[in-house]
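CORE FACILITY INTAKE
Project code: CF-77B
Contact: R.S. (postdoc)
Sample description: multi-component assembly, two entities in total
Requested service: structural model of the whole complex
Turnaround: standard
Below are the sequence entries exactly as provided by the requester. Do not edit them.
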Amino acid sequence: MDFDTIRARLDKLLAEGRKGELRGALTMLNEVDIAEYLETLDNEKVLMVFRLLPKDISADVFAYMDNDQRQRIIEAMDDGEAMRLVDDMFVDDAVDFLEELPAGVVKRMLKNCDENKRQLINQFLRYPENSAGSIMTIEYMELHRGTTVGEAMAEIRRTGLDKETIYTLYVLDERRKLLGTVPLRKLLLAKDDTQVESLMNQQFVCVHTTDDQEAVADTVRKYDLISIPVVDNEERMIGIITIDDIVDVIEEENTEDFERMAAMFPSEDTYLKTSVLTLVKNRMPWLLILMISGIFTGIIIQHYEDILRTTLSGGVLTACIPILMDTGGNCGSQASTLTIRGLALGEITPHDLGKVLFKELRVGMLVGALLALCGFGIAVFAFGGTIGAATTIAIALFFAVVMAQVLGCVLPVLAKSIKLDPALMASPLITTIVDVGSLIILFMVAINVLHV
Amino acid sequence: MDFDTIRARLDKLLAEGRKGELRGALTMLNEVDIAEYLETLDNEKVLMVFRLLPKDISADVFAYMDNDQRQRIIEAMDDGEAMRLVDDMFVDDAVDFLEELPAGVVKRMLKNCDENKRQLINQFLRYPENSAGSIMTIEYMELHRGTTVGEAMAEIRRTGLDKETIYTLYVLDERRKLLGTVPLRKLLLAKDDTQVESLMNQQFVCVHTTDDQEAVADTVRKYDLISIPVVDNEERMIGIITIDDIVDVIEEENTEDFERMAAMFPSEDTYLKTSVLTLVKNRMPWLLILMISGIFTGIIIQHYEDILRTTLSGGVLTACIPILMDTGGNCGSQASTLTIRGLALGEITPHDLGKVLFKELRVGMLVGALLALCGFGIAVFAFGGTIGAATTIAIALFFAVVMAQVLGCVLPVLAKSIKLDPALMASPLITTIVDVGSLIILFMVAINVLHV
């Protein structure tokens, strides 16, 4: 049954006010689908339907709803009801939500919760944005040194329902230092009187609260983990990050790379929710910088104007400027994309600069030669250029392509090695540099080949 | 301890031939790190160190090694040893590996394994590339209708070690139709004589063997799953796909989008492992197509050459052509990137075309007006242009920007609605179209404003 059919049926029950049946129908759906359905409703209906949800799933549905709707629901609730809802959420989801609320509302909500929870939430709200601390959760299963398998299983049965994952257990010492991890699988296969320490994996991988979420995602991806422990500066266990949140981080970081590579500042929200003004603000700075850098190309063209006007070139050089510039830009874009992506996935490191450069140099010479040939043909047959003019264009094309490939691979690697985001060294910036370079080459070659 | 230190210690043990100690040191490492270490060794040493590994982890290490090394190891082994290794791998890893081997080697290996396994592997090798079937594994925990919790736990203890995940259990009927899923967590909290069917989640999400891996990844991401069941056309359970493989699919699909958006054919291998010739082959087709399309811009320039030469424009128009074209290209790149990304993440659907278009139109007019103003200034102050020439450029810039934004959002959405990959409608293609459009606008405006 597809979403439209489900929606039509629920809408019908809602319109006819058959609340009992609607409640029944909702319990047949996945929390994600319920949240999706709620997004289609207007404000007053959302709250009404939300209150129909069974208590045990309402916090989950709430976590999947969009922020505007969540805020409206919270505002319509009294303080007690709102706090109970936040209480039912996992700490990472609750903090995500509270971060987006106006400070006044957060204060009002925190006033109503107990001292421990308040301290905890405040601590979470203090972790730097995009740090491991800001995306972790504290609902993990911890075991103490000396626990037996039987005791551990009893503990899981007692408290496991409230944990975000019970599939990896964490063994801590008296000072809460993480000693090792035990997969639940091993626990199930062991005898009841076995000490959990003997099952423990001591070669566990962990991250620190202040680590960047991108580095965390890289680690989880590399080691195929489903959760990763987070420790503080004294190696004390603080929380865990689960794979579902890592998947979101991966997509977020990819989106940021896509945006940076298209010369934009990354946006906080999804496209449809970002205002026109914010979109303009994210796009203008680089557009302006690149446009102003374009002055150099203009100055070069003005300086060598005579060459363009000479009858020797017959207007062919001017006609070929767009082809020269676009081809250079496209080649730079190809080389930089592969390099930036390779760096992001860890397939290329700054140590590989030599290898990458040698490869792009060979690719550049091959591609450059082929495109130069093609450019020669275009100059002669499409634009009726002389052999001299066509040769000029072919040579300029060749060098523009090689230059674009080299810059395309060198600049991102250099950026990485000085801790800048390689994605900044992408097509738009490289195109602008290559434009200047290829025009200079074009005119130098013209002077020497056409003798103007 | 960082990787370089680990490597130095292992290298020392290896050089001094202290095999026992080396073996001991290796068992202290994660499988992923061992594979990374093996990649630093030359051929003969790899095989020697590989054979030192304890049997229970060698298949895991093998799964993390790179293909060339795996092939060399297999070739150095006799048939029996090779087949035992493949036997120890999960079916999805084994198939991944066999797919990369030369047909002759696969045949030789399959000859040595038993009938069941051979049939199974052959079936897997037949699933279309990038389908759910090609990435799934069959090592999941299945339960039958009527099983009690106690029986299920006993079954997990008996066979759980060989399963890729035991954290979700699948309840099947007599015809192997999937009835529901049971998280291990629920099983642990339930009484031994409870029927598993009563704990079962019937609102499970599943995919079909022929579904594209990208769609599978979208589903897993949307529902925050750690594994997803795969069924055939008759809804019979065939296998599962686990989140670690989904994470790889997500990165692979992102890489493909990055490559397509930079006008390249996606490559099969990582950058450093792709040959120069393959890189050239992946890059040339679009470069040629875009270059040949550039003929149109050239023809337009040749046709209106008189306007560029007139003293009224004083060479300013020619000097501004690169700025006009790059700015148009950059704006098209920004709009298309956000649209393509929004479509890929499901944040934008073809139904939203109206909303997206209206938004880009407003962004385009604002950005266009600001850039036109800036362009006017550049024409006057940097290039010494007349008010007339500067006005011409400003107007052309405004329309080029608006056109680029509109095409940048409309083309990817249209591509999606006719089932083409939206990533094809990215910056290089849009730049080429916008080039033609903005030049035509430039000359039309020049004729009307400058009266040439």
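Facility notes:
- The beta strands of chain A are 141-144, 168-172, 178-183, 207-208, 227-231, 237-242.
- Chain A touches chain B through 112 residues (CB under 8 Å).
Invoice: internal transfer
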